[in-house]
Design goal:
8 strands; 246 residues
Length: 246
């Protein structure tokens, strides 16, 4: 495994799963074999974005029914997914130890994948941070809203103070231009670095658009449509991530 990216957001509705699923599609197409892990235990829906419904989910692994390799579902020759399970109390109330167990599961298949993308739960619960902060680079999906700023800041603060993470990759979501995205990033960066000794790195932005809304309805990553601007924007984010040498 070359790299692992944990996609986080301070609050739900920040486009975290859209970013994770489309990055997985991009990495698998251009960079190498990729595993997408749906670790949003409260509302797992990454598999829906690919129009599949795997029989075995991460709940099977946590409960001990299956090995981690058993629950890996192959979407294409270069892309696989570990699906979450809705309505599982064991996953909603997941412990920090089980967060670490999932990472050990990922490690057990590391020889089969060059990239791992983890779609985490929103917020900074113990299991989310224990899974995200072990070896992954942290990507924050940020929306220009006061509540999202506050929650994203809290997530970064916990990762920094409790897990000693110093570098964070920031994707601005639901923004209409690179100019505005840069302004949002600069504003958040100024607020965050005023109180925390961390480094934030801008990696790109995604807009609010009909193409993205249609992709949700059609249950297919918008990255598959090479004609739309969102495809190019994901390419930019992917290149910034793969070129990052934190």
């Amino acid at each position: 495994m070359k790299k692992s990216f944990a996609i986080l957001s301070g609050k739900g509705g920040a486009g975290k799963t859209l970013l994770a699923t489309n990055l997985a599609a991009a990495f698998s197409e251009h960079k190498g074999s990729t595993l997408l892990v749906d670790a949003d235990f409260g509302l797992p829906n990454a598999h829906i974005m690919f129009g599949v419904n795997p029989e075995k989910t991460i709940d099977n692994y946590i409960s001990g029914k299956d090995t981690f390799e058993d629950i890996v579902y192959r979407l294409s020759p270069s892309l696989s997914i570990v699906a979450g399970k809705s309505g599982s109390s064991a996953l909603v109330d997941l412990s920090e130890e089980n967060g670490a167990k999932i990472w050990h599961g990922i490690q057990s298949v590391r020889e089969k994948f060059e990239y791992v993308i983890i779609d985490n739960s929103a917020g900074a619960e113990n299991h989310t941070m224990s899974l995200s902060c072990i070896e992954s680079e942290l990507v924050i999906s940020l929306v220009d809203l006061p509540t999202n700023f506050l929650d994203a800041y809290s997530t970064i603060k916990i990762a920094n103070q409790e897990h000693k993470i110093k570098d964070f990759l920031i994707c601005i979501n639901q923004c209409n231009s690179v100019t505005n995205a840069r302004k949002v990033f600069d504003k958040f960066n100024k607020i965050t670095t005023q109180f925390l000794e961390v480094s934030l790195h801008y990696i790109g932005f995604l807009p609010r658009s009909n193409n993205i809304e249609d992709s949700i309805t059609n249950r297919e990553p918008f990255y598959h449509n090479k004609k739309n601007q969102e495809h190019a924007l994901i390419d930019t984010i992917m290149k910034n991530l793969d070129g990052n040498t934190l």
